[in-house]
Amino acid sequence: MNKNSFVNVAYKVLKEKKNPLTAKEITEIGLSKGLIKTEGKTPEATVGARIYVDIKKKGEDSLFEKVSAGKFGLREWQSSKEKAIFHKKGSFKRAAYEVLKSNNKPLNMQEITNIAKKKGLLTTLGKTPENTMGAQLYTDIKKSGAGSPFVQLGKNKFGL
Predict the structure, then answer these.
(1) How far apart are alpha carbons 96 and 93 in whole angstroms?
(2) Per-residue confidence of the chain (160 residues) as pLDDT tens digits?
(3) What is the spatial distance between Cα 143 and Cα 5, in angstroms, rounded to a whole number?
(4) What CA–CA distance (Å, rounded) separates 77 from 31?
């Protein structure tokens, strides 16, 4: 099976399930439906690798995005997710999303807050806006799970 077939199968499975899945889950569904035929011993590793390579090579043009540790979703889901979560201009979550997306790397809550304030994405009169930022992101991750665009990458450090 050629490498594009694994990517195509991953897309079909994710599109049908409408939920983020691990490479193992994608592979199991693909195998059970006869979409993947392989004699390899670790097809889930191949599927995961193909998706990672697709994301790495194509960036924003990839059909896929990593939504949490080991889970993949479709980039096309992002627009509805953004509309649902970030409709309120000036919100901490929207500011954090825009800062993390433009910096393209994980940042701690202090850095996110400072950049958001400098760019005019966030206006607050609170004395500890970085704590509010951390609380908002942490709560969104806990509440939304894999549906959250944010991931926590250590104490007070967040990424997309």
Answers:
(1) 5
(2) 444 488 899 999 999 988 889 999 999 999 999 888 888 889 899 999 999 898 888 877 888 988 777 888 888 876 554 544 444 455 788 888 889 988 889 999 999 999 988 888 887 778 888 998 888 888 888 887 777 888 888 888 998 8
(3) 35
(4) 24
Strand bridging mode 64-68 / 21-22: unpaired
